[in-house]
Amino acid sequence: MVSDDCKFFHLFKQEMSKRKRPDSTAPAHGLTEHEKTIYDLIKSKQDMGIFSQDIKRETKLLPNIVTKSLKSLLAKNMIKEVQNVQHKARKHYMASDFEPSAEITGGSWYHEGALDKTFIDLVRKTCLSYISSLKIATVEMIYDAIKRSKLFHVECSQEQIAEILRTLELDNQIVEFRSTGCGEFAAIPIRRVCYKIAKKPGPGKEPKVSPMASIPCGICPRISYCSPDGPCTSPLMRSTRAL
Which InterPro entries is this protein grouped with (predicted)? Predict the structure, then answer.
């Protein structure tokens, strides 16, 4: 027959075992339920992050709870606030595990949230110099030459060089051609897009300037989305179309 003392000791061991056993449903890092909900949402957005307004909308939590939870997560260094170059006035959050995408930061064309006009001007001049020396050049040729030269403190992608060439064409500094594969185009495959320095206008003639020339839209990381009724239509774009 088991004594009362033995029964008590057995029950005591069971209770202690339950207390030591981790609760798999408990939030990680000592987070509250609301903090974990918000953190999981932010982390799911990876390198794109999420605006505070969208956090409130997707979690359906009260604004004061969202604000309090965000402050707590920031203090714990689990999330960070990043600047979105296209929406500087709106608060944008990202999990600390990720670095913001080029779409958020603006990529090489932006420095500390502002358009780096000095760097852009340097890339433009470098592209013009290579086209002038090569006489005729494709995007790939210019990109390869710049990559080998290691002139810049940051690496430019081939797509970014293409964007710069687009602005130079809009400024009437270069002209786009399609290779015929003959004569001066002999080294370039047929129908490949290539560029030459634009001829200067004759005496007394003014160069024709495009209404799109030298505006930031030409190097905007979302330029491919632009259209008269597109999601990225800006007051600047509307004003240039009215010219």
Answer: RNA_pol_Rpc34, RNA_pol_Rpc34-like, WH-like_DNA-bd_sf, WH_DNA-bd_sf
Q: Global pTM? A: 0.51
- 233 part of a folded domain: no
How far apart CA 43 and CA 22 sit, in angstroms, is 24
State whether the Cα torsion 34-37-41-44 is positive or negative: positive
Measured CA to CA, the distance from residue 78 to residue 96 in angstroms comes to 5
Final residue before a domain boundary, out of 77, 104, 131: 104
Under a CB-based contact definition with an 8 Å cutoff, are residues 105 and 48 in contact?
no
AA identity, residue 37: T
Q: Among residues 104, 121, 148, which one ends one of the domains?
A: 104
Q: Which residue range is the domain that position 172 belongs to?
A: 108-228
Q: For residue range 222-232, list pLDDT tens digits in order.
A: 555 555 455 45
Residues 117 and 222 in one domain: yes
Residue 223 in contact with residue 165, Cβ under 8 Å? no
